[in-house]
Every structure is written in structure tokens, then in C-alpha cells.
Task: structure prediction
Amino acid sequence: MTNEELLQLMKRFRVAYATANRKELLATTSSDFVWHQNVAMSEEDLPTGKILTGVDALLQEIKRRRQQWTNVRYENMQERATADMLVQTFSISGEDDGKAFNANAVDLYPVKDGRIAKKDTYWKYRV
Result:
């Protein structure tokens, strides 16, 4: 895929993610899609962070966030494509179940056979 095609794939995925569009998420991700989150929810999630497998797990996480996250702001988003990888950087802030968070984030998206195979999330928390 060209860099432009990769960026178009990212745009489709981003819109599908924001709208929790299962059909479009299935169209933009591989059948073995995984999301390595930035935090571990239990000891078994260490050291990679919680791992969600498949679109349905991704949709469950979106639902959880919509229920628990408030005042969320995404800023300074940038996206880059390189061969078989998409890189997204942004700042995020808000509250998770009443607890404030503020971070700079990097998401790495390896692409396989024209679809996003993984969302690998890294957050650097800010004070």
C-alpha cells in the first residue's frame, strides 16, 4: 500500500472507532486484530498492558470508556504512514470514573494485507 492508502485506511478506522461502527471496524482490521492497551488491569496483563482480541473486545472497551470517561479531549493529533505501519500521536485528557488523566500518547498500527493488525498504545502521563 502507498502511504496515502495507509492514511486513508487510518481515517476509515479512526471514524469507525469514534462511532463504534462494527461493520467498518471489521472492514479495516485483520481477523486476528489485537489491542495492547497502555495499562495493565491485572498481574496477568503485565508487561504488555491489557490485551484485547478482536473487534468485539474493542467495542466493549469503547462502551466502557463511554460509560466511565468524561470531559475527554484529544488534541494535537498527527498521523504518519511508513511502509507497513501507521503511527498516531496525540494528547489526551479527561476523567476516568472521576479520576483525572492527562497524557501524551503514541499508537502504533502495524498493517497486514491492507488491514490494521494491531493497535499498540503507549501513554506518557503529564502532571
